[in-house]
């Protein structure tokens, strides 16, 4: 995720203008309009939760494409609470942000990290990705300014048509940037939530992809007061929040070349 976010930030808001001039703003199937309705809907929800399945591809030196799969859940309470759990073949990790402190726990590593955190979820996501490169699949969709972040480097946007993801009918959109192509499937109806998100790296041999499927969306308030409280597991060791320690928290085995990670 951090790769595409860095690219978008470097190019800036010029891409938004290019995208909007590449399509007709009057069209009912305007991809920018559909994407903005999704972003506005998510940003307007004080509480959000969902589960997800993610696949990240890598290309080996022998040009073999290998895919690694993970699953997880997230819970968000705006503006300053977040909990994410992800389990895969090489990591079982949990992130908890309580408005003051961010904690990361690795069940396989039996270690955790803690640091003082900024005062919003948006700032925490930006800080974590900038300082550690932590894999946080699809968190750009949860930002309060998700629309601006998503389209600011886009040079082209298309409404492909309709698709069905996990039995749910969706609008299928496709966008292009200089370095990545990305697609998103957005539920049709009163709750335009993202159901599938695919990022393709165009600058890497074999065009590896990152695929995210999101389901079980809920907007109910969290009744449990401990939802965003981190409790240190018995026997866990505290480690420093740095890039070396973050290897234990990655979706890929140590030493694996990265693919289309965002």
UniProtKB/TrEMBL annotation:
Entry keyword set: Signal
InterPro entries with a match to the protein in the record: DUF2092, LolA/LolB/LppX
Pfam families: DUF2092 (PF09865)
Keyword Signal: yes
Gene3D superfamilies for the chain: Lipoprotein localisation LolA/LolB/LppX (2.50.20.10)
Extent of the signal sequence: 1-28
SUPFAM superfamilies for the chain: Prokaryotic lipoproteins and lipoprotein localization factors (SSF89392)
Name under which the protein is recorded: DUF2092 domain-containing protein
Organism: Bradyrhizobium frederickii
């Amino acid at each position: 995720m951090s790769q595409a976010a860095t690219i978008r930030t470097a190019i800036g808001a010029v891409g938004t203008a290019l995208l909007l001039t590449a399509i007709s703003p009057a069209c009912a199937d305007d991809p920018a309009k559909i994407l903005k309705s999704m972003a506005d809907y998510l940003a307007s929800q004080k509480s959000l939760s969902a589960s997800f399945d993610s696949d990240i591809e890598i290309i080996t030196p022998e040009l073999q494409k290998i895919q690694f799969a993970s699953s997880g859940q997230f819970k968000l309470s705006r503006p300053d609470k977040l909990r994410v759990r992800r389990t895969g073949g090489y990591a079982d990790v949990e992130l908890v942000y309580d408005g003051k402190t961010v904690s990361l726990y690795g069940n396989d590593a039996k270690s955790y990290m803690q640091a003082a955190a900024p005062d919003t979820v948006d700032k925490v996501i930006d800080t974590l990705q900038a300082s550690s490169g932590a894999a946080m699949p699809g968190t750009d969709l949860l930002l309060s300014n998700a629309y601006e972040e998503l389209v600011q480097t886009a040079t082209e946007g298309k409404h492909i048509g309709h698709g069905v993801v996990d039995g749910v009918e969706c609008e299928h959109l496709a966008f292009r940037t200089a370095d990545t192509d990305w697609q998103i499937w957005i539920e049709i109806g009163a709750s335009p939530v993202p159901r599938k998100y695919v990022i393709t790296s165009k600058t890497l041999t074999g065009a590896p992809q990152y695929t995210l499927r999101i389901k079980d969306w809920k907007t109910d308030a969290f009744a449990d007061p401990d939802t965003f409280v981190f409790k240190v597991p018995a026997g866990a060791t505290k480690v420093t929040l740095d890039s070396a320690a973050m290897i234990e928290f990655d979706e890929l085995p140590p030493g694996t070349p990265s693919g289309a990670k965002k």
